[in-house]
Amino acid sequence: MIPVHRQLVPSLLHPGATFSEVKEHQPFGAESRFVKLVRIEDDVEVLGSQTRPKKMHWLGSDGRRYAIVAKPNGKDTN
Fold it and tell me: According to the model, what pLDDT value does residue 65 have?
């Protein structure tokens, strides 16, 4: 799952909500609203900085491309 802003903001019930409304309420939306990872593109761009992070793109189930920057972990001297 790819976290996007609309999935991280809960929807609140109104103050007079009935028991059945509370029981059925999904504050972060139905599962069908979640954006899932469909594919990771093959192209990787190495960014020009000391740690040389890699930039890649993921394709979400909503059809959008998401840019992801991955930095090396630890003390890499290469």
Answer: 92
Give the range of the structural domain holding residue 9, as residue numbers without chain letter: 1-34
CB atoms within 10 A of CB 19: 7
How many domains in the chain? Answer: 2
Identify the segments of the chain with pLDDT beneath 50. Answer: 76-78
- The token pair that represents 29 in the structure block: 């939306």
Whole-number pLDDT of residue 77: 47
**Token pair recorded at residue 52:** 């040389």
Contacts of 67 (CB under 8 A, 6+ apart): 55, 56, 57
Confirm whether pTM is higher than 0.85: no
Based on the fold, state whether residues 21 and 42 are members of the same structural domain: no
Contact 36, 61 (CB under 8 A): yes
Asked whether the beta carbons of 30 and 40 are under 8 A apart, the reply is no
